[in-house]
Predict the 3D structure of the following.
Amino acid sequence: MSALSEAHRLLRNDLYLHLEEAEYLAEFDGWTMKQQRTARAVIGNLVTVIRGIIVLHDDRSDRCPSCATTWPCNNFETIHRLVKNPDGEFVKLVKAQRSPVK
């Protein structure tokens, strides 16, 4: 394995580990009020991350600026599918916020 391949593997694994730790935190029930506020702020942070990835693959022409393939590229379509998954918690949260409380 080349040094560059090893560096990519290490970066990827570090990111996966970081995300797994965040997932584990979602299961924790004993949060203080301050931790709950921080967790709510994470939604905004994740939206910023998703927007940052989208902008890399969004263009008003027929080519993805990052992938140089026909737009929408596979990356853009994957992001769309994951964010708009009707069974996902993000979609449920947005729908609940949109619908009036009865």
Observations:
- The helical segments are 3-26, 33-56, 74-83, 89-98.
- The mean pLDDT is 90.
- Residues 31-98 form one domain.
